[in-house]
Amino acid sequence: MELSVVIVSYNVCDLLRMALKSLITAAQATEHEIIVVDNNSSDGSAEMIRQEFPAVRLIVSVSNEGFASACNRGIQASSGEYVLILNPDTVTRPDAIIKALDFMKTHPDAGAAGAHMTDDNGRFLPESKRGFPSPLAALFKFTGLYRIFPHSAFFNAYYLGDFSENETCPADILTGAFMLIRRKALDMTGLFDDSFFMYGEDIDLSWRIRQAGFTNYYLHDVHITHFKGSSSGQNRDSSVRHFWDAMTIFAEKHLQKGWHIPVRTAVSLLMRLSLTRLRVARMVKKRIHS
Predict the structure, then answer these.
(1) Which residues, in sequence order, are bridge partners of residue 124?
(2) Residue 269, SS3?
(3) Total domain count for the chain?
(4) What is the pTM for the complete model shown?
(5) 171 with 31, same domain?
(6) Which stretches of 53-200 are DSSP H helices?
(7) How far apart are CA 90 and CA 110, in angstroms?
(8) Cα-flanking dihedrals φ and ψ of residue 141, to 5°?
(9) Rounded CA separation 247/264 (Å)
(10) Which of 34, 53, 54, 126 is the most buried (most CB within 10 A)?
(11) pLDDT digits (tens, 9 = 90+) for 207-217
């Protein structure tokens, strides 16, 4: 088996249907399997797959076990030489799979590869290519300073600002929305760390692949559309907490110990600010509609 595609889905039935249709078209020229791990959706996603996509292997969880854990279940059930982690809220271009596989085959140093992602309005998503989230890079990102110097290798190291979206380049960090991984790299690094419930697991695995001696690449000519936030947006407060918790876990795993306390303090403050902003926004919206 050349390719295994693993999709983790949670209450996005209509988007999942669209993702599978585009994926099946894009993957038809290669020997492949598609595995969907459904995280106990309540919107009929599992039934839809059984009825409309009988060739897709379906794994149904009895609870929402989180993205990383569900991905691992799918990977463990797979057999492909390459594993593609794909979000259910994506549309894959017809030539994306073949181009990505061709790149991996001709670049034996590549541990993983990511795609040029755009949102549903055609805007480039900068998280398609990212550098290591050092404290300084993260500071420039979360304060918005990177926006003032978008092409700077120093101020926009978080999004690799010195590389254009239209050029293929090494990228420390890839996103789990489209992450094509060499099986050999997974064998060396292990699977996703399931202490990450949602967010951060792709950052962690990307960095472990780099530490294992491989290079991760952003592929400018491999295109997908990503309808962001379809699952995470269902509970914004919970999503915010999961995001900042993930940043803490990553920092404690991969940053020098001297950074642990200031990072944890900063993350706690930023999480509180984010939750306050959400509550204020809801209050304003409620007053407008009352």
Answers:
(1) 118
(2) helix
(3) 2
(4) 0.83
(5) yes
(6) 67-76, 96-106, 135-142, 183-189
(7) 23
(8) -70, -50
(9) 9
(10) 34
(11) 999 999 999 99
